[in-house]
Amino acid sequence: MNLGGAAEKLVSVVAKMAALETRTEDVAKAQLRIEAKLDSFIDRLARIEANYEHLKNNLKSEVLVEVGRELTKVQTILELQSKGLLPHGIFLDARKDTRVQLEEPKVEK
Question: Is 106 a domain residue?
């Protein structure tokens, strides 16, 4: 067996192993970067979901408050009308807080 040829093969194998080790380290570093980006993306997505839920709950609360106000106004108007303190056919436009006269329906003869 030729000792020079064996040494060349050994050097070639060691060089290939070193190149594979370097490539493995590069792949591991890339994997860590991707995992960090993925974690960041997941965190941002969780914050977006939390903000969405918060906004949805706030909007729901605001709508319920507005509906409650409208109901209170209507109940007050109906109560005043039933006591004769407010003429029938008049209601307060809750969006503008103004009185609006309802027109009587026209009946064709």
Answer: no
